[in-house]
Amino acid sequence: MMPNPPDRRRFLAGSAALMLGGATSPATAGPSGTTAGGPARVAVVGTGARGSDLIRALSTIESARIVAVCDDYGPHLDRGLHYAGARVEPFRDFERMLDRTRPDAVVIATPLFRHFPMAMLAVGAGCAVFCEKTMCGSVEEAKTLAGEVEARGAVFQVGLQRRSNAIYAQAEAMVRAGMLGRVVSIKAQWTRNNSWRRPLPVPRDHPDRPALERRLNWRLYRETSRGLMAELASHQLDVATRLLGVPPTRAIGTGGIDHWRDGREVFDNVSCIYEYEVAPDRPPAPPLPRDGADRPYTVRVHYASHQSNAYEGASELIMGDRGTLFLTPNKGLFYREADPGEADWGRGGEPGSADRDAAVLTAGKTLKLSNDPWAHRGKPFEIDATGDDTRDSLVSFLDCILRGDPATPCDARVGLVNAATILIGDEAMRRQSPVDFPADL
Prior knowledge:
Elements: H1 8-20, E1 40-45, H2 49-58, E2 64-70, H3 74-84, E3 89-91, H4 94-101, E4 105-108, H5 115-124, E5 128-132, H6 139-152, E6 156-159, H7 166-176, E7 183-191, H8 209-216, H9 227-244, E8 250-256, E9 269-278, E10 297-306, E11 314-320, E12 323-327, E13 331-336, H10 353-356, E14 357-362, E15 365-370, E16 381-384, H11 389-403, H12 412-431, E17 435-436
Parallel strand pairs: 1-2, 1-4, 2-3, 4-5, 5-6, 7-10
Antiparallel strand pairs: 7-11, 8-9, 8-17, 9-10, 11-12, 12-13, 13-16, 14-15
Helix pairs in contact: 1-7, 2-3, 2-11, 5-6, 6-12, 9-12
């Protein structure tokens, strides 16, 4: 057990304040077309599975009023309209929707390749924008969009889910407080046993089937997708960047189409290592016990995702020299790292100890250190929180709109760094060689 464990309610209260930035304070100002306190008039473009989730969440938030939904695929548009309500106007053309309804805010839940042009149009029309991750499909697009958002002072938020989760806000507070000591490694994975391919509502010999395949399964093709890195790794690598406080310096990786050989063009399994150069005083920790302690040190972030085994699910493991955080959206566990002087050096020839212990040569002596992963874990400090990441992120976004505050929980600059992080990993896997983080970001 860790000594003097922190009070959970105190940590969660602090986390909520950090995450929401005072979202419960009264709204005093809003964009054109809203009154103080709202509601904001919201249009949603892209009403497939994710867009419908966002519509359902918006419909429960008093500070939002959905005025339009837009999708150029009829069945998706019908579904979005069903969730949004009969009084909402449907559109198939995005520009026409902007011109006709002039919403205060636009929620973009379209395929990745459409994020940039739609976000640019919406920002140019004076709208606040909530854009699903990954923000853009190229670094140049992301730079252009972030520049436009900053030039206009627009309210802009990227849908990186863990940014609005109290468990991750508390994890950040614990890292900043030095409870983990010096972060030395991060591991994350998101594993599934699913092809990611959506069934088509037409027979195999239908003339429209090829076009419909590309439309509905856009995640599987290079022209429209960046695969597992953009759709899954974006959330988890944002956690690493957030906790370490700096972007990565480079990425190496490997990936392939090794299980689902069905004509897809994006990898069905990915493995990447990112290198982060971290200042010695960030996260807070005692000086390094060696020469050069004032120089940055390297933290390596290991990321893996595959689609043929779901055993490990999705989680992040943040390892420091004083403690470890195991994080999921529903629960976090903090394990205190044993002091080196408290290590279990073996059982002196106890039967079976050879299977449990590793020999370590130190100063001419042979010591034994347990290989059993459970031997180094005491009882964890549990971090629990209730909430809905999607709804909570929209509440924060709407609060920023009504207050006229561009400092959203995940603004365009965060989205730019996240997009670049994802894209260098994707490029490193395709090139089979290291790729540096862009020097001009």
